[in-house]
Amino acid sequence: MKLNLKIWRQDSFEAKGAMVNYPLDDVSEHMSFLEMMDLLNETLVQKGERVIEFDHDCREGICGQCGMMINGRAHGPLANTTTCQLHMRSFKDGDTIYIEPFRATAFPIIRDLKVDRKGFDHIIQAGGFITVSTGQPPEADSILISHKTAEAAFDAAACIGCGACVATCKNSSAALFTSAKISHLALLPQGKLEAADRVINMVDQMDAEGFGHCSNTEACEVECPQAISVLHIARMNYEYNKALLLK
Amino acid sequence: MKTTTLQHKLWMSATGLFLCFFLVIHLLGNLQLFLPAAEAREKFSWYSHLLAGNIIIEIIAYVLYASIITHTVHAILITSKNTEANGSKYEYDKRGEASVWYSRNMGLLGTIIFLFLIIHFKDFWYQYKFTNLPLDAKGNKDLYTIVVKAYQQLWYVLIYEVALIALGFHLLHGFYSAARTLGLFHPKYVKWVKVLGWVYTTVVTLGFMAMPVYIYLNSLS
C-alpha cells in the first residue's frame, strides 16, 4: 500500500524541528510499524539523505525502547500496544500518518523521534536499595509470599518504562511509571523497611525531573503496553500519604 | 522532603470533598423551595435566619470560603506546573481518545463554576448579608422573595442550568479523583467509589437544576 507520512525532523536538542512529508510506496500490511520505518530509511539512504532516527531494540514488545506518537496517540491507534507490535494492517492504503516523538519537558528530544528518558532512571535511582541478607543464597521459603501478592507485585513490575504514560498524559505526569515501581516493592516483604523513604524520595524526584501531576484521567492505562493498572497510582498516593503522616 | 504537586493535590482533594459535603447540606436546606408558596416563604426565610445566627454555621461558612479559595489557588498552581511539564505541543493530537472529556477539562469546568459563584454570591449571599431586605411576617429577612424573583427570568434560569451542568461533570470526575488522591484504592471497593460518585453527582446536580426550573414554571401559571 501507499502511504503519506508526516514525520517530525529535528537535528538536535537545540534545533527547531518541523513536520516533513514523506510519500512511501510498496508498504506491506504484514510489516510492523518499525519495519515500515526501516523501509522509509532505506529509501532515504539511497537518496543520500540523513535517516530518521528512532529508538528500538527487541521488537518483541518487551523492552520499552520504541515509542512514537502515531496519529496523535502514544504507540498508535491500538490500546495497550508497543510501536513495534503495531502492524500496518491497522492502516489503509492512501492513509496520511502523523509521526512525532513523545513530548514532555522531562523527555527532551535528542534527534527526530528519539527522546531522552533519563528522568525515569533518576526516579528509579531515587528509590534506593532494599535490605537483603548478603552471603549465602537464602532458603527459598524463608520469606513467605502469597501467590496473590507475588502476582500483584509482578503486575506492577511488568512496567517496561516506555514512557507512553507520560506522552499520553495531558499533564505529562509520570505517575503511572513511578507508582508501578513503588507498588512493586511496597507489596513485597523485602521492600517494607524502606517503604516510607522510598515513596517520598521517588515522588520528590518525579517532581524534580519536571513531570506534571496526575489528574486521574486514566488515559495512561489505555496506552500502557503492559496495561499497568491506574490503581497503582492510588496505592502510591496511599503510601505517600501514610509516609507524610507517620514519618 | 519537598512540597510536591502531590501535596497540592491533597489540598485539592480535602477542600473538594468538603465542598461536596457542603453541597449536600445546601441541597437539603433548599428543598424547602419545593413547598407550597406560602409555606415555603415562611420556612425558607426562617431557615436562612437560623443559619445566619448560628456560631457553628458561622465557622463552617468560613471554612467554606477558605475551601473555595484554597481549591482555586491550588488548581492554578497545579495547572501552571502542568503547562511547564508539557513543553512543546503535539502537531497532531488525538490523545483525547484515551480518556473522557470532562476528566481532561476540570480547569475549564472549574472556571465556569467560579464565574457562576460570583453571580450566585452577589445575588443571594451579598444581598442577604449586606443589604436591608424587607422582612416577612415573622420579622426574618425575606430571602424567599429574592430567590423567586430571580428565577422568574428565563435567561437567569438558563445561566443556572448551564453552570449546574458544568458542576455536574466537575463532580463526576472530582469525587472519585479525590478518593484516588487520598489513596482509597482497595480493589474490592474501588468500583463502588465510582458508583457512589455517579449517584452523588446525579442527585445533587438534578436536585439543584430542578429548583430554578420549578420556580420559573410556577411563575408562568
- SSE order of chain B, one letter for each helix or strand: HHHHHHHH
Average pLDDT value of chain A? 95
How many strand units of chain A?
A: 7
**Stretches with pLDDT under 50, minimum 5 residues of chain B:** none
Helicity level of chain A: 25-40%
Q: Which two chains touch over the largest interface?
A: A-B, 51 and 42 residues
Structural class of chain B, please? mainly alpha
Number of helices of chain B: 8
The CATH superfamily of the largest domain in chain A is known as Alpha-helical ferredoxin
CA(first)-CA(last) distance of chain A = 60 Å
Tell me the series of helices and strands of chain A, N- to C-terminal: EEHEEEEEHHHHHHH
Please sum up the structure shown.
The complex is a heterodimer of chains A (247) and B (221). With 247 residues, chain A is of the alpha+beta class.
Give structural notes.
The complex is a heterodimer of chains A (247) and B (221). Chain A has two domains: 108 residues, Ubiquitin-like (UB roll) (Roll), CATH 3.10.20; 119 residues, Alpha-helical ferredoxin (Fumarate Reductase Iron-sulfur Protein, Chain B, domain 2, Orthogonal Bundle). In chain A, 36% of the residues lie in helices and 11% in strands. By secondary structure, chain A is an alpha+beta fold. Chain A starts with a strand and ends with a helix. Chain B has 221 residues and is mainly alpha-helical. Chain B has a single domain, classed as 3 helical TM bundles of succinate and fumarate reductases (Up-down Bundle). In chain B, α5 crosses α7. The interface between A and B is large, with 51 and 42 residues.
